[in-house]
Amino acid sequence: xxxxxxxxxxxxxxxxxxxxxxxxxxxxxxxxxxxxxxxxxxxxxxxxxxxxxxxxxxxxxxxxxxxxxxxxxxxxxxxxxxxxxxxxxxxxxxxxxxxxxxxxxxxxxxxxxxxxxxxxxxxxxxxxxxxxxxxxxxxxxxxxxxxxxxxxxxxxxxxxxxxxxxxxxxxxxxxxxxxxxxxxxxxxxxxxxxxxxxxxxxxxxxxxxxxxxxxxxxxxxxxxxxxxxxxxxxxxxxxxxxxxxxxxxxxxxxxxxxxxxxxxxxxxxxxxxxxxxxxxxxxxxxxxxxxxxxxxxxxxxxxxxxxxxxxxxxxxxxxxxxxxxxx
Length: 327
What we know:
Radius of gyration: 27 Å
Order of helices and strands: HHEHHEEEEEHHHHEEHH
CATH architecture of the largest domain: 3-Layer(aba) Sandwich
Shape: globular
Number of helices: 10
Largest sheet: 4 strands, mixed
Low-confidence stretches: 1-36, 38-44
Number of domains: 2
């Protein structure tokens, strides 16, 4: 019993000592705060509201995006514009990367649409702000490279790692060391997010969702290989995450990798020795493709594929990419 009492006394003593030390620490902090008053006139860079003298980069962006399309390109770090995880924070853009990256974006994104449907469409439908981030954002084990926010803003990430000289021939290569940060990977992200803006403005045919009903997998798509996804009628594994993602992946992947790649993928997936062996996937691809082509033409006046009257936007995008790559 005596040992228990002694233990209790010791515990109380230690507890009181900890409280005393804590109060002393708080007291010291209070004194320190009184002695060193915070200078409220100081500004912390990157919280927004700073004023800058326009430089050559700002003038170039104004001439190429603000004046012709009424788009503000934000490249200086502004924490209010970018939601970043503290575990893997998004870093600011290196100024040397801005003009190189945005030149490519102008040439492979804006120019094909301008050729296909005119600058009025771009002025109306492109987001009013393009925000650049230096690094990517990690989600579900993958790097997120962009996001559209209600048609008003588009966030483009990983700009510091942009490589305009490397080419790949298949979306599956985007995750490889050779494909990471190349022009097709970035354009895939941009066309994907821009297609979201289009369907958020005017929705696509409701029957699209029924084509692959029961096969969407919002969280499990990350464990699916390309061949498996395509055997189920999805152009990429990410297309399995939901009907909206399925729709915009059809648009963006065909645009970026071309009709020839798409037709070859469908052929390899659905046919063997000239014989149809996967009717379900073939039916899904055929119906989805038809809705995409019809939607872009009838809602936005955009011809997707070439026809007897001339070239479509898919060809324009391929020509723009090849020009960037020096082909």
